[in-house]
Structures are given as C-alpha cells and as structure tokens.
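Workshop exercise sheet. Pairs work together: one partner reads the sequence aloud, the other fills in the structure field after running the prediction. Swap roles for the next sheet.
Pair: D.N. / O.F.
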Amino acid sequence: MTTHTMTEVQGLEAEHVLQVYKRANVVFERGDGVRLIDSNGRAYLDFISGVGVVALGHAHARLAAAIADQAKTLLHTSNLFYHPLQGELAAQLSALTGLDRAFFCNSGTEAVEACLKFSRRFWKGTRTKYVAFSHAFHGRTMGSLSVTWDEHYRAPFAPLIPDVVFVDVNDPVALTAAVDDTTAAVIVEPIQGEGGVRPISSAMAAAINAACAKTGALLIADEIQCGCGRTGTFTYSETLGLKPDLMALGKALGAGVPIGAAMFSNRVAAEAAPGDHGSTYGGNLLACRAALVFLHELDVAGGGGVLANVKRVSAYFDARLDAMKAKHPRIVDVRGTGVIRGIDIGEDAGWVVPAALERGLLVNRTATSVIRLLPPFVITETHIDEALAILDDVLTLHLQEKK
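Structure field:
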C-alpha cells in the first residue's frame, strides 16, 4: 500500500472532499487489534473504534478471511433475488432481540428511517406524532434528524418533519403526559450516545412501557450505539425491561462493514407491503457475511465469545473510573456500562481529545463536556489501565497549567 504524507492527503481532501468533518492531523493506514498505526508507523490505543463500529478490533483475522472469501464468491445481487445469508442473519437477530423480522439497510440512520416510516405505516395516517427525548440523537437523514434534539444539528435543515414532541429524558411524568392517542411512536435510545452517554432510568423505562400500553403508541428502541453487545447484553432494552415494537441496529453489527437493521414485531410488519420500502445495497452478501461473523464471535448462546469479555471487563472499568473520579474533582460524573463510557468534566472537554491523541490515545468528545470511550469489545484490563493512565495524565497536567 502506498504511503501518503499528511500534506498530500490534506491537499486532496481540501480540493475534492465535502468539508463537513474536522479531522485530527493524523493519517491512519493500518490497524492491529485495539491499535491503529499512522503513516509514520506510530501506534495509538483506539478507544473510539470508528465511533463504536470496530467491535472486534482492527484486522480481525476471521472477519478478514470471511470478507475475502465472500469477495471471491459473490458480493451483491440486489433484493430482486434471494441469497442464502439474509434469512440466516435475520433469524439470528430475531432470536437475540425478540422481534420477528428484519429489514436490512446500510447504516443506523437508515434503520431509524425505516422504523419511523413503518410506525406511521402501521397507523395508516390516523396517528402522526412522535415523542422523543432531550439529548436524543438518532441520525442525520431528514426523518432521524427530526427526532434528534440538539438544535445545532437541526436548525440548518429546517423545516423538518412536523409533529415531533421532545420531553425531558429525566421526567417520566412529562413523558406520560406527552404520549396520547395521536402518538404514532415513542423513540428512545436506552443509553443516549451522542447526548453524553446517558442511560435512561428504570423509572423512565417503566413510564414508556406504561404509556405505550395505555395509548397503543408504538415503541422504537434506537440500539445503534448501545446495542449489539456493547453493554454486556445484546440490547440495553433487555436490561431496562423495555418492550419495543421496532428496533434500530447498526454500528457494531458489521464490525467495520456498513450494515444496519430495522427489527419489526410481526404486528407492525403485517402492515408492510411490497414496494413500501427498499434499499439497493441493503442486506448484500458481503455485509450479511460480516454480520454473521460478528454474531459468531459474540457467541451470545455459548457465553465464550467477546460478549463474555465485555461482561468481564465492565466491573474493572467501573472500579477504575470511580477511582479516577475520586482523584479528580473536576470530573462531575462517570456514566455508562460495558464498553460504552462517558467521563463528564463539567466544562468543554474539547481540549482533552488532542492532548490524548498526542500521548497515543484516541477518544472523542460529545455533548460538549463528555469524554466518550467506545473501545472494541476485545479490550483487556491492561488496555483500560493504559487508556485511563493517559487520561489521568492529561487531566492532571491541565489542572496544573490552570493554577
């Protein structure tokens, strides 16, 4: 593979790539496990994993072999024909989520779009309202953006789809009042990701279930970031006792290969008809093969795969983060579980990202004040120690500089 200098890469992008990203000044060319290697050969500990995507780590041998084999066999046929992998993947996802049917697409935001569309399709125009939450982020396409809370994302693209009501994610009473017989669906992230790694409370989960049961409103669970095993269970809805009618999956599901899935109960799926929705690339053989490898490596049934590792390291992560919080008064909260974590420092955390990068650690900032950690599922206690030692160093030095 040809090595490109930073100047060459930045020059080409400045001229030809839509300028919607603020990239760090590093060019990554290869990866190995939980590390990325830049064009100068320097290795970095990856605690963002492509924003929650590279669940099995980089250059995973069995995933790479499966992708290579599938590329030599058959990549794509379109959804005009059958192939052997969609049904197999759908059956496994049905068993894992408790929902009956899958629609395959290419990303999480597309999965949310499908859920939004078919929650309206279910009601045949008699209900149009969506209830969503403060701090929610569901994607950047027009439907998913419409149920995303932050005006920073919404305002440049207004007007969005109408009849969306946002309620405080910490106010079950407000949720109960907002859901009525005009509500098509409630949409919720069991752990809000972009919103600052905020798990919803058990009280809110109970209020959502009760409101949907009382009014008939459908429940959409957005498990794109917190699902597929990142918390130690396949979905966090399961942990909370949420009872969704539809569910959006993405990110980790393809372990780096783009795939999304909208999961449907049979009750909602019964209202779908041929031609109601579609995707050119959705559910192609390469994406399905990658997702099947991921689910095999997860080994939910056998308990010996990477899901078991997530459960094992979760308690260690808890203890180490609690110790860091006790040491640094500037940390106002640590949130999350498994391998989705947020360190809230109560002020703009933008400076942490480049300081950590300089020391060989990849993290990102979200919700202004939160350092987000989304490492691959294969991390060990040693990796956690290494990452948190770097963050400890960054926070300590910054505090000294401010004195």
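Discussion prompt: The CA atoms of residues 190 and 305 lie 24 Å apart. What would you look at next?
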